[in-house]
Automatic annotation (TrEMBL):
Taxonomic lineage: Bacteria, Pseudomonadati, Pseudomonadota, Alphaproteobacteria, Rhodospirillales
The keyword Transport is annotated on this UniProt entry: yes
Protein family per UniProt: Belongs to the thioredoxin family.
PANTHER family, per the entry: GEO12009P1 (PTHR45663)
CDD domains the UniProt entry points to: ybbN
Domain Thioredoxin residues, every copy: 11-128
Keyword annotations: Disulfide bond, Electron transport, Redox-active center, Transport
Protein name according to UniProt: Thioredoxin
Amino acid sequence: MDFIIGSGSKPAAGGAAPNDLIKEGSAATFAADVIEASMTTPVIVDFWATWCGPCKQLGPALEKVVVEARGAVRMVKIDIDKNQELAAQLRIQSVPTVYAFANGRPVDGFTGAQPESQLRAFVQRLGKGAAQPSLTEIIDEAKAMLAQGDAETAAQIFQQVLGEDPNNAPAMAGLLRCLMAVGDIATVKQMLGQLPTDLVKNAEIAAVKTALDLHEAAAAGAGQAADLRRRLAGNADDHQARFDLALAYYGSGEIETAVDELLELFRRDRGWNQDGARKQLLKIFEALGGAHPVTLQGRRRLSTLLFS
């Protein structure tokens, strides 16, 4: 993501900043105060610190122009010393740093102290509407957050999209993957069972269904990896043991190793169990998605074996 940079400070003297326009934020409230709120109104996030001199100049000036905008934008102030993990996640290099969010994603920003005229232009530009991303762009951003491990924030964005377009298949698939990422398998099953037929047939949702099937198959053999490795050490042609070990690796998140074992099984006996190794590889590739690095590399290696 391209984040934007700016400042931080305490509220303007005299308490001039209305509570509904300017508030103190934290890591715990960031998703609601910034991500969700910016879906309707641009939000300026002011990262500051008590020891930062320029922050004491920029903060009150920025609050002033936000108030002047009369609700066209909102402002959230984050003390980086009290929210070090959030600052690290957003790669705050120095303060003052300001990010502007719209539709759940960063759209503009600056670093360091700025003259009031530039702050006013900045706020006016946001108030008139920062470049509005398409739903596809918003979904892509949420997918990136999920890939980076932030399933909760990604889920909130997917839900926002579904609020606008309840039948948006990529957003539904993304939400289901977020639920799987946090271990809420029961809800995933329930939601899949309630989806309209046309959505269930969508490729991205079908891939989630495949991922769920793989998860359950892997869960059935959880805790058996050590025994399966011993079996293979004694007999490298124990194909069932290798197949089950691949599922165990997949279930523990060692996806590349799972693919390695299935490719090795295919190399040793491509016809085993009615082409079982290749079929399982294709399920993993479908679950991961065609653009996933493991899929791309795995398909190349499988093709090499097929035509060797």
